[in-house]
Amino acid sequence: MQVKPRTTEYDVCIVGSGAGGGMAAYALTQAGAKVVLLEAGPAWYASKNSQMLTPAYASPRRGAAKKTRPFGEFDACDGGWEIAGEPYTTAPGSKFLWWRGRMLGGRTNHWGRISLRFGPDDFKGKTAFGNGFDWPITYDDVAPYYDKIDDLIGVFGSNEGLRNHPDGRFQPPPRPRCYELLVKKTADKLGITCIPSRLSIITKGIHGRQPCHYCGQCNRGCTVKANFSSPDVLIAPALQTGNLTLVTNAMAREVTVGSDGKATGVSYIDKQTGADEHVKARVVVLAASACETARLMLNSKSSHFPQGIGNSSGRVGKGLTDTTGTDVAGFIPALADHVPHNEDGVGGMHVYMPWWADNSKLDFPRGYHIEVWGGLGQPGYGTLGGIQRYPGAGGYGQSLKDDYRKYWGTTIGFSGRGEMLPNEDSYCEIDPNTVDKFGIPVLRFHWKWTDAEYNQVKHMQNTFRELISAMGGEVFSPMPSKEEGYGISQGGQIIHEVGCAQMGSDPKDSVLNANCQAHDCPNLFVADGGPFVTQADKNPTWTIIALAWRTSDYITQQRKAGAI
Which residue among 148, 301, 454, 496 sits deepest, i.e. has the most Cβ atoms within 10 Å of its Cβ? Predict the structure, then answer.
């Protein structure tokens, strides 16, 4: 292999430009470091490239989904579970879906922007509940960085004083929509906590960004930068410092090491020319996403690291978890023949339900939160199977038109998102027989849900059905059976996979220390979901960003001290 080296040696090389990579680029360049950022996809900025207001009829596909944009042709994230020439495999008996975003900003261009802090118990699950694992850090270690990203990025919400659902430095939340008020009333009646949602969408202008104008197209990317995406909010300011060199279409192959066992940089393939290149750096930060980072570490073999860089413990790729999920929707007669009204808002829910129950009285150890959807944003056709789902509806001509008017907005749905405990049967490794189109060995996934997750999802199903019933509604689908896993999502389907390079205090059973620094290689760091010791009943992005900023500050301190 003939490698074309870049002559410049940078202070830091970052691999990946999503939540963690973008945050690291921002923090390190602000601190004066000369940084090179490698991104496997092309450049993309929502403020310039978004088709936020393009009508579906303006495309030959009418906005329909395709493999690289499974959430719609105008969706902001290019990538998906299937990428031509970039396979992954699953072990016999396992099912796993691995989403990859191949563009600047990765998944931050399209996500629900649900921005929840992990709580004190989420960092100390073993201590709090007697199962799972403790992190080597506490909530208090991360809280100052949650505050900093609240101020820098912006998040709306409300201070509720819920101990394990910490409050933040919130902007005002939007008012609940009509159907969300009904959900709130019903949840209160059933003793289920229901509060304003917490989304990284600004309702007041900050840092030159305009507030949300309620077009509802957040998944397409925001041209006014009201919602958070890494390219516009983190990478663009980093570029303005003059300290960031951005290299797009760069597929990372290996972290290189010197004779002293320290990282010397990253070799990568220029996807446009096919050339093998190398960038030199004094510090390497991997932020390619939990599984992609594990793949890169496992493929970085040398005489110093025969099992892959940073893998003397054998734990790279282990501890893989994803969020549990299931959905239930129903017809709510109280919403039929409604008075026409405005349900504009952000591209997502205005209320949600954080975990409220006592696990000691349940047959599963961890909780979940409930996401709410429906109303005028969910007409009675399409994914819900057509107008015939509604009692007595259908027909032809005027009667069909009348029924569409009558039943539009009468659907309410709930999605559960819960914590999975790590298990030794869920992990990723290098497939010894398969490479991608660049010749890089691919990942093979092993996956298993346990009774803890199945029982949790059964509880979700029952809760959602109880909510719909209490609203006087009718559920669209029958209760899934135990054989159907109670409707549990497939591993990876919720796109919250974390772990694979877990932090810990003992190098024998962890990959990183409490600062996300490799035990085996002091100038190698991880700044994505890889360091997570456990999941939580919260989405991981806000914690990825907070940890990335914390790690970046540690790198800056170590560089000033001459330690790395």
Answer: 496
